[in-house]
Every structure is written in C-alpha cells, then in structure tokens.
Amino acid sequence: MNAPWYKYGLFNDEISLVVAVLIGIGFGFFLERAGFGSGRKLAAQFYFTDMTVLKVMFTAIVTAMVGLYYLSVIGYVDLSLVYINPTYLLPQIVGGLILGVGFVVGGYCPGTSCVSAATGRYDGWVYLLGFVAGILFFGELFPLVEKFYVTTDMGKVTLPQLLNLPYGLMVFLVCAMAIGAFAAAEWGEKKMAAKNQGEIK
Amino acid sequence: MKVTQWINKLSLNQKLAALLFVLGVVALFAGNPYGGAKATIDAQELALIVEKQADHVSAEDLADWIIQNRADYRLIDLRTEPEFAAYHIPTSECIQLPNLLTSDLQRNEKIILYSEGGIHSAQAWFLLKAQGFKSVYMLFGGLAEWQEKILFPQIPENATPEQLNAFQKIAEVSKFFGGAPQTGSEPAALQPKPSLPTPALPSGAVNPKIQTKKKKEGC
Description:
The complex is a heterodimer.
Chain A: H1 13-33, H2 39-44, H3 52-73, E1 87-88, H4 89-106, H5 110-118, H6 122-149, E2 153-155, H7 159-163, H8 167-200
Antiparallel strand pairs in A: 1-2
Helix pairs in contact in A: 1-5, 3-8, 4-6, 5-6
Chain B: H1 2-9, H2 12-30, H3 43-52, E1 56-57, H4 59-67, E2 73-77, H5 81-86, E3 92-94, E4 110-114, H6 119-130, E5 135-139, H7 142-151, H8 161-176, H9 209-212
C-alpha cells in the first residue's frame, strides 16, 4: 500500500475524520509537552529569552521534509498527490503580519490557544473565543476583501520550482539552515540570560 | 575509536542535528522525489476483471442510481465539450482523456466513465487502473446504449406479457430522463430519429448537491 493512504483508498471519508482526530490529539499533546500551553513561554520567543518555539517548529519542518523526501525517493509516497497550499503572496504576507501581531500581543497562535484552553487556562479560553469571533468577522467582511484575497496568485509553487534548484540541494540547504538556526538560538538564549542576570544585579 | 568518543560526548540534540546534516548531505545525491511512486499494473488481474465484465455498469443500473439520487459515484463524460453541451447524462462531468490524470478525481472514488461508443472509456479505464484508481467502471455500450435502452426504448415485436410489463417499467424510467419510448409497431428504421432531450432533468428530480460536492483540502 502506497501513501498518501487516503488518496490510495486505504480508508474512506468517515474514517479520515477519525484519523484527523487522532492526529489532532497527537499534535496537541506534543505542543503541550513542549510547553506551548503557556502564553508566557510563547511570548518569550519574541524577546529572545526562550527560543523553544523556533526550535520545535523548525524541527517539525525538517523532520517532515526529510521524511517525505526519502519516502518518496524510495517510491513509497507519491509526492504529486500530497496537497500543497496555493501561494497568494501579498494577502499571505498581510495575513502573516496580522497573525504575528496577535501572537506577540496575546501570547498564542490559534493551535496553541486550543492547547492552552484544553489545559484549563483562562487566557487560552479568551483567546479561543477571540479567534472564533475573528473568523466570523472575517467571514462577514469577506465580500469586501475578496478581490485582494486572490491577488498575486502564484499557484501551488514549491521552493525548488521557484528557485529552479534541484530538490536534493533544496533539502540540504533547508537542513543547513535549520542547524544554523538551532545553533544561533542556543547562542542567543545564553547571551540574553547573561544580559538579564546583569540587569537584575 | 576517536570518532565514537567524540560521538559519545555530544548531547542528544547535537546527535540529532548531526543526523539531520548527514541526511541533508545524502539528499544532495539522492535525486528528484517526484515520480518516485510508479504504478505497476497486474496485467493478469486486469485481464480477469475484463473477462468477468466486472468493470461494467449497465445503462439500467446507472439510470436507477440517478433516479435514487445516489451520490457515491462520479460520472465522467469523456467526449468533447460541444458534444457534452448538446447532451449528457444527468449528473455527469465533462473531463477529456488528456485531462483525466490531472483532474481532481481521487483514487478512492467510484468512477463511471462513458464515451460515445466504448473505446474511449475502455482506454481511460486502463489509464486510471494503471494509476492505482480503485473502482473504475464503464457504462456498458456507452452513450449509444444509453440512448437505445433508456431514452428511446423499443417494445419488442409480438411482445409477451412479461416483456410488456418490463417495457412499461423502462418507459417510466425513460420519461424521467425526458426520453420517448417507442411503441409503434413499425420497425425502428422507418421511424424518424427522435430528437435528444435537453440535458436538464425535471426540476427537483436530482439533488443539486451531487454536482457541487467538492472536497476542500488543506488547513
């Protein structure tokens, strides 16, 4: 049986919902174990005192990339069947900025606010209500922003296609980038810890 | 020995980072991941399916499914767009052969193909089967048979009561699809060829959901 399993018909629509619940619980569990149920820990990312978010997210990205790359090289995964989000450059930059501002101000992103709410934190629940209200608000306003929403359509583009580089080279570059980011994050954490200690004294 | 000592000194995180680096370097030479999963055809299995005619759906069955409003299949019209516009079986979608593999059809969907006769649908059947599509079927006899059996059914000459009964049933089905059952006693060849009904179904006959069901992916 080849992967993606759903597209090869290993399970149907109904079972895929069950699978989604299981994956979601796993995702939430590991976010919580990484400490992402705490808004303080997440916000510390933006003051460079705790780079756990960057390390966890980058680890997830390279693990998925290396895994998918090797599984498809050996012919187990049909990469052409893996869904790729289409790129709308400008609207996605604006959306990213809105999400980023919310992240710094509130201390959560949508996924981590669910984790926080599930662990019983009030700020998590407030955040959860806030983003549901935001979805409603956006949905009602959608006719107004619809034109902008679909501008700068680049299609389902990947980095190797965009930069015209071989896939293997791109994998190597992202791995190198991740290792560099991990090293820089640890170095920065030590620097900031030393600096903060100096201030306390 | 020195290497193992050096490795032992590393923390778990550093070991994992080193592993990532090695995997990254190997990836430089491992090539393009796309097109890795080549489909293989079990020719014997396909031959058996063809032999048993398990790859067919009869016009009568299809008509029943449409009347019952079933939505667990996708009906694909392989003919050209002008032909599709002139007449198509209700609930069908127009996808031509070259676009078949890049369309949004999924491997776990039940797909029924039809063309004018049966050649194009048979070719498309093999293409999809070779790509690992699970349940692909052809409309037996294609659109020609659909017209003959469903739209313009003919009463057999000197029909027995049983045949008459069966004809009455099929005439109902035919009217549902806007067809014209042929009850005249003269041979079919002498009758003027009846014109095709418009593709639209009687209003309210078919749930419009069938045509608009499309899956949204991503998060």
